[in-house]
Amino acid sequence: MQTNSQYQHYIPQFILRNFSHRYKPSKRKGNWKHGGSRPKKGMRKGENVLNIVDLTSDQDQLREEPVSRWFGQINMYNDTAAAINSQKNLEEELSKLESRTAAILQKVKKAQEAGEPGIYLNRSERNLLRKFLFIMKYRGLGFYGKYRSGDQYSYTSEDKNLLRSYMSEKGFENPRDVWLHNLHAILDLEMDAEGKWMTKLPEVMFPADAAMFTYHVQSSYTAFCTPKEDDDEFILTDQCYNVFEGPIHEVTSPLTGEDLGSTYLCFHEFGPISSRLIIVLRSFVLPEALEDANQKIREARQTYLDGAAVQFPRPDNVKSILADLPVAKAMNSNMAVVNGKLELAPGKTGKARPSDKFCFRFWPIKRKHVDIINSVFLDNVLHCQSIVFRSAPSFRRTLEAYMTTDSYGFKKVGVGERGTRISRRMCLQRLSTVLKALGSDNAPIWHDEEEANHSSYLQSIDDSWLEIIKKFYGRSMDSSSEFRESHFWGIYSTLGGTKETFLKDLEQSWRLYRLQALVFNVSWGLDGHVGRQARVNVVHFIVQFHPRRVWLYVKHLRWMLSEEYARLQETYIGIAPILAAKSRSLKEPGPEDDIVKSLKAKKPYLPISWPQPSSFNPPESCTVTMLRRSLQPPNEAFRTHMPDLISYFGAALGDHERKDELHAMAMEIGKTWKEEDPTYCTTVVPHCLIFVRANPDIPILFGVDCWEERRKLPPMGHFSLEAPFDVKVAS
């Protein structure tokens, strides 16, 4: 553990020097229009200094600072706990990474400055760059601030439950130790060509952040961009390695004001190298001309984009403002372009090797794109303390472009201010002062809309899931024989389902669940009889739907009441794991499937828990009707009011003490039904009675009836299903 105070950079000096100039005190004090400066005490002539905009002050905002004392913190990486197993000094390990990366980027920079069209890097060099860019993101002020909490209970990010569990399991004392440990793990990681590192990394660091690293490396490609105009330059901010271009939607609980996390889609991330060279990481969901010549790849890319877009209030508006950026993937030595399509190069197997070469082009980009990239940085300075620029005239022009534009959704006061250092209004006012000091007479404009006036949008995770399925479904059915031949689709087809009926059935079954949940939640606050009758009525209503929809409703219900769903919400780190788990759950076999299969075999569903009555004579076809008693107490969470669906459909729990009583009750209820429609009791379990009832007109039907007064339970009766009908549930 280090004891002496040390200034430790989160943006390395080799990058800062690319934005610096030699210090030369100006006789024209403060004349920034001509690149002049105020002499600073302690700075030497010829020293590397930076032009900065100080966003922490209302005065002296434009000044020069030495490279050695900017973009850093005191004792930022000191190991503070025994939980850090590695004895290596983190600053030394970061220095080694920076040194190796600097050599690569210096080679890239020289090639670009020499006018070369591109540069070759091998796989190891490319992987090192990707690791460096993530480290730049992860060690920046954003994550540093996130993990500064003194203990696990003051850590409030959306992955708090996962982190607390991980800290308890691994013996970490505070979140900062986890952050330092993660940095060690990534720095020590050997990124093999085969990709085995992707399975090893979650074993040696916080799994959620390991997944973030993997996604950062695998979900985008690297492009080197340079301004086409000689007088255009990129700027640098505290957070420029930790911002992205793409939509973001913050969700806050309307009841508690609690931060419920953010939904975002990262189209582009950035890694400035110099004022004339920047790395752009472009998402795989955006078009790529050569790859998109393959129809399957093109459709899969569009499917991913559509699925991501439906999570936002206006999916059709989810577009990248840099979609037309003229970049493409680097060509590698395994591939060749044949007739406009990518194919394996002669003699290549396609197997990734450390020696593989990648040809990265230098992409000249228009002033419009330079300004958009700089504007993305400027629109995120609410989290920053300063801006660095190379030359005053270029910065004045790009700042003016940002402050006077009415496009791209920038500068919305009251939006994106969660957890920021200052308000957007104050930030824009300070930038306006800077713009004027730089000699601009143009009037800044911004969208003066308070967040409170914005229309709220809160979509449930399961509603998002349904919209994503709608987007994926058409393409997956056309291209995936695996889905068409699955157990799930076989059961659905048995009930008469087709490709044309599926989406409507799925939507209606989900609305049935929402209706039941709404009625059950509201009815528990009503007087006993009124509430019970409401719950009975909604169930009677649900079972009148087509068997396909009731079957799907059962699957929705089991998922919503499942322990897995509760656990995923408790350990929430974004909706993706929940959406994937629900999709798996929908396709998993369940007891309700056994009932359908028994119909296909023309046999009634007979779960074995008790010997069947000797008089039992199975009919040719049947309807399954289930009677259930409600659980107590009614003030428990809604999910406890309905027993697990396995109980519904015949898990033999074996209530031997009440077997005879329940069986007699079933027979008594059965007497109220017509002789030509006999009822047979097939299973007796603690929370439900399951009956098989002959009814050739209805192939199969699941019915649930609340039962409060056991001896007075009425029969459910018959329901005509000649034509399925739809229901709409009010939010």
Summarize the structure.
The protein is an alpha+beta fold. It contains 23 helices and 22 strands. Strands 6, 7, 9, 12, 13, 14 and 17 form a seven-stranded mixed β-sheet that branches.
Task: Explain how this protein is built.
The chain is 38% helix and 15% strand. Strands 6, 7, 9, 12, 13, 14 and 17 form a seven-stranded mixed sheet that branches. Strand 10 (248-252) and strand 11 form a beta hairpin. The chain is of the alpha+beta class. The chain is globular. The chain has 23 helices and 22 strands. Among the domains are: 78-218, no CATH class; 461-712, no CATH class. Residues 81-87, 450-457 and 602-731 have low confidence and may be disordered. The longest helix is centred in the C-terminal third of the chain and has 25 residues, at 499-523. Helix 2 packs across helix 6.
Using only CA atoms, what is the Rg?
32 Å
Give me the secondary-structure category.
Answer: alpha+beta
Major pleated sheet:
7 strands, mixed
Mean pLDDT: 74
Task: Reconstruct the topology from this structure.
Layout (H helix, E strand, L loop, with lengths): L6 E3 L3 H4 L4 E2 L25 E7 L7 E5 L5 E3 L15 H24 L4 E5 H16 L2 H6 L13 H11 L4 H14 L8 H8 L2 H12 L1 E8 L8 E2 L6 E2 L2 E5 L6 E6 L3 E7 L2 E7 L11 H15 L21 E2 L2 E4 L2 E4 L12 E9 L1 H13 L6 E4 L2 H13 L19 H14 L23 H19 L1 H4 L2 H8 L4 H25 L4 H15 L4 H14 L2 H8 L5 H12 L3 H10 L21 E8 L15 H4 L10 H12 L8 E7 L2 E7 L7 E6 L24
Parallel strand pairs: 7-17, 19-22
Antiparallel strand pairs: 1-5, 2-3, 3-4, 3-18, 6-17, 7-13, 8-18, 9-12, 10-11, 12-13, 14-17, 15-16, 19-21, 20-21
Helix pairs in contact: 2-3, 2-6, 7-8, 9-13, 10-11, 11-12, 13-16, 13-20, 16-17, 16-18, 19-20
